[in-house]
Automatic annotation (TrEMBL):
Coiled-coil blocks: none
Protein name: GTP-eEF1A C-terminal domain-containing protein
GTP-binding listed as a keyword: yes
InterPro entries reported in the protein's UniProt record: GTP-eEF1A_C, Transl_elong_EF1A/Init_IF2_C
Keyword annotations: GTP-binding, Nucleotide-binding
Pfam families xref list: GTP-eEF1A_C
Residue intervals of the GTP-eEF1A C-terminal domain: 2-45
Length: 45
């Protein structure tokens, strides 16, 4: 997987998605989601 953050690109390996974050509050909105879609934020391992 390649992460794009502003102008930086970093190669990484995602072991698992721990939780999905609410964009307004930054708090956990769903635990162990199966996938992420565009513009979602998550805690990953």
């Amino acid at each position: 997987v390649e992460f794009h953050i502003h102008h930086a690109k970093e190669a990484a390996k995602v072991e698992r998605i721990i939780s999905l974050l609410d964009p307004k509050t930054g708090k956990v909105s769903k635990k162990a989601p199966r996938c992420l879609t565009s513009k979602q934020s998550a805690i990953i391992e």
